[in-house]
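request received
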Amino acid sequence: MNFDLSEEQIAIRDAARDFAETEIAPTAVERDLNGEFPKDIIAKLGELGFMGMMVSPDWGGAGMDTLSYVLAIEEISKVDASVGVIMSVNNSLVCYGLEKWGTDELKEKYLKPLASGKMLGAFCLSEPEAGSDATQQRTEAVLEGDHYVVNGMKNWITNGTQADVYFLQAMTDKAKGYKGISTFIIEKNSEGIEVGKKEDKLGIRSSDTCTLGLNNVKVPKENILGEEGIGFKIAMSTLNGGRIGVAAQALGIAQASLEASIKYSKQRKAFDSTISNLQAIQFKLADMATNIEASRLLIYQAALNKDNGKSYIKEASMGKLLASQAAVNCALEAIQIHGGYGYVREYLVERFLRDSKITQIYEGTSEIQKMVIARELLKG
Ligand code: CAA
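response:
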């Protein structure tokens, strides 16, 4: 498999790196501290085509490939993983599903503004009693004439308070189990939407996570994606791509931890030398770099499979599993290398650790990724 980047992919990576360093880095520490959503940054990312990277230009997107998307998410997440997840959810969970299953009318109305950054989207699958076991949806949508009436509760909604539209799964036929789940596009300003308080999180604090109540929300019947009953399939297929995004986010955190560790170890002196000369530090750097490179190859493989129309379920889950583990381990080692300085805010690596943990949880925990990988190995 050839992972040489094309000139275009290198240009996209460099543009994302430049944007991250000049536009995101200056406010990252403060936004993390205050839990402040990066509204202006997201608007600028939209103007640059980073909010609908893989969407066709016909629908307002940038028409790029998945590998370019991975490169951009990694660069952005190296500087601020909060921005990485906001971008990832809009790109791979909301825009992807809408482009694949939406009607032209829905694409005109919602995909164009979502892909160009004029609107923001959120993906609403999890519920208080349907997390890893996502088939157990309690939210219900009942068809009444020309609209559905939706009632229920969603939680852990990334972009929840800031989003303009929700990509939401609900039961249209309880008796059919997961085959009775359908997907809807719901506008945030619909009557009956109750946006809950923003969660006070350990990490990715500048991103926005909340609960969402739906009380007799009227949704036009044309806002269903595809047809009734295919919502679980849509959610799972969408999450396969989403997992590539989260894996790239984790890769960014791991890479940032390594780069900070290399820089610090070349400056910090102990025992008459810089600590980079100590084998104890060198072994840590070697392990970090090896795990990062292995993760990167798996993620690139998943991205290429997706772009080449091959199955990428297993590769996406493997990439997420390994990269999220690398992110947590690299951030921990970065703190160890920095010693006491790693434990205080001034040196950033403590944020890398706080931001890394969620990559082992959202869009399927590491345990769910193992389940998905094993099922792919055993099927057939
Ligand atoms: N891709 C495509 N289809 C899939 C799939 C996948 N990865 N996984 C399952 N399916 C399909 C199956 O083929 C099956 O369909 P058919 O009957 O037509 O064949 C159907 O879905 C049911 O599958 P299972 O029988 O395997 O169902 P299960 O209940 O045993 O397992 C699960 C399903 C894999 C555990 C699934 O519930 C899952 O992935 N859970 C994790 C949910 C998750 O990732 N949540 C993240 C929340 S969103 C989030 O975090 C976003 C955010 O804001 C950041």
